[in-house]
Design brief:
By secondary structure, the protein is of the alpha+beta class. It has helices spanning 62-69, 96-113, 141-151, and strands at residues 16-17, 34-35, 76-79, 85-92, 118-122, 126-131. It contains 3 helices and 6 strands; from the N terminus they run ββαββαββα. The radius of gyration is 17 Å and the shape is globular. It starts with 15 loop residues before the first strand and ends in an 18-residue tail after the last helix. It binds the ligand C[C@H](O)[C@H](O)[C@H]1CNC2=NC(N)=NC(=O)C2=N1.
């Protein structure tokens, strides 16, 4: 099911569910309930596939965003030059080819979700992933869900091996 994104004319909300597929909405997120867009065969694995009319695509403040961050190991909150919050994480890979293979895996998840990160190749083998909702010019629940799904990508064969620690002298 083609994902829809924030800011599009919302279709009439269907059944609301509280717990998002991959992240738990912090209690302080208010009473906003996630509405799932009706669809011929709702794709449960594409949890950002729901239309987010109105409040559900509300921009998260720093405090709420920080609560999502507690469930996203390795991710950070970054503010860009326009003051917009992004979820950001850098993966360093074994080679440029492996970094591009990781980008390919990320792209497949993003395309299936209809929600996309910015990807930056740095230091020849590192991929910095930056996620925010462009249609809302800020961070929304969709971004936390996408980050959570990117964490589930199998990538151990692509990531740089941890450097052996020098034995204590
Ligand atoms: C038409 C298309 O679904 C929209 O442009 C989607 C594409 N992917 C997206 N990705 C992100 N991060 N934010 C968006 O607002 C967004 N909109």
């Amino acid at each position: 099911m083609m994902a829809t994104t924030c800011g599009q004319p919302g279709r009439p909300p269907a059944v609301a569910t509280r717990k998002l597929a991959f992240v738990t909405v912090p209690a302080t997120a208010g009473t906003a309930r996630r509405q799932r867009a009706p669809g011929p065969a709702e794709n449960p694995s594409s949890s950002t596939a729901a239309a987010f009319p109105g409040q559900l695509c509300r921009v998260l403040d720093h405090r709420t965003a920080s609560q999502y961050l507690q469930q996203l190991d390795g991710w950070q909150l970054q503010e860009d030059s326009l003051g917009r919050l992004h979820l950001q994480r850098t993966y360093c890979c074994r080679s440029l080819a492996k970094a591009l293979a990781l980008c390919d895996k990320i792209a497949a998840v993003a395309d299936s979700e209809g929600h996309h990160p910015d990807l930056h190749l740095t230091r020849h083998n590192c991929v910095t992933v930056s996620v925010f909702t462009k249609a809302r010019n800020g961070l929304t629940e969709n971004d936390a869900i996408l980050a959570s799904k990117l964490e589930r990508i199998s990538k151990q064969d692509l990531l740089a091996r941890p450097r052996p620690r020098c034995p204590a002298v």
